[in-house]
Protein 1
Amino acid sequence: QKEVEQNSGPLSVPEGAIASLNCTYSDRGSQSFFWYRQYSGKSPELIMFIYSNGDKEDGRFTAQLNKASQYVSLLIRDSQPSDSATYLCAVTKGGNKLVFGAGTILRVKS
Amino acid sequence: DAGVIQSPRHEVTEMGQEVTLRCKPISGHNSLFWYRQTMMRGLELLIYFNNNVPIDDSGMPEDRFSAKMPNASFSTLKIQPSEPRDSAVYFCASSPGQGDYQPQHFGDGTRLSIL
């Protein structure tokens, strides 16, 4: 079992729709959860982080965390073509270390 | 504010040559991370430093890889001798401090091709 699992996609959504990206993790001791966006040929860019169970909203983005289910998700409302990218879920392991999922490719079609 | 700065952006060299990648973390950040990204293995942590001290190098693939952080504003990742399978994008990232709740910020990466 991989430490962080994501559906590779591609996930295709129409412009203006809600995109839902999911991630599961295996280490119950993980404390912090991060979502990075990576455009093709570019570096990962931090877009959200969440530490507590529940929802955290920032603009069009909402991160959701359920530690009991070891599940974290990212919702993107009013999806735009510029949101088309690979979304990486990352989970802390033993302090500073981050373990990344393989990423989900999102395509927003206009 | 300046982000994490990496150099060179691209490196093409022949097998067997020494490769040195450089990184300047965000000013004031105490933790520095080296990652490697490939299509097959995704984004992997190679090594990280806290306050210039290497903390975990368990991700370094073999003895051909070494990393140093002589001061708070500079780090190097060296591969000697290089092999074609080392071809990848190498990222440097930094975070404000130690602990679970410190987001990491990435540099633009070095795209390394070993012929």
Protein 2
Amino acid sequence: DVKVTQSSRYLVKRTGEKVFLECVQDMDHENMFWYRQDPGLGLRLIYFSYDVKMKEKGDIPEGYSVSREKKERFSLILESASTNQTSMYLCASSWGGQGGEKLFFGSGTQLSVL
Amino acid sequence: AQSVSQHNHHVILSEAASLELGCNYSYGGTVNLFWYVQYPGQHLQLLLKYFSGDPLVKGIKGFEAEFIKSKFSFNLRKPSVQWSDTAEYFCAVTPFSGGYNKLIFGAGTRLAVHP
């Protein structure tokens, strides 16, 4: 079974801090994704990556950056955390392709920025 | 812009009641369609998907969905819900438009089933 592991289940950070969210998948998937989940808004795509060192902006990339140095690991970085970035962050992965594949999700990281 | 609309944000049912959750999308071309479910405290998981072929697709746990192309809809149904179906349900669509085709999620529907 595919496993997508997010390093933290809960995080509390202060405004202005640099925040790293880590995600690792164990099925050699080409594609990896970062979403944020907010009540009433569903899931919104922040960034995705279809290969090592490759990244593409999603729908809401502002205030975020990503890093994919190894195929199995995809990191989300909040350069200077703000209160409006308080959210549930979900990592996902999928087999390579042009989209439309099934996504496998991690359990999520609930980030609170105070 | 392409979008996915889920008609109900909250649904409350008693056990054994029938369920239908609405989903509409705004794209006229080829699409892949999905329903994902998130049980309390668990990760999102795929409930069912439609890529092509029979527009009536069956998923896990007795769920099914029907793709009606003329209505741009992909409604989720279950004839008789159980307490364990309490969860949040997300409709998602991949519109194929060249390049990498991203998955677009609806806002979700929270279903509460009372014993």
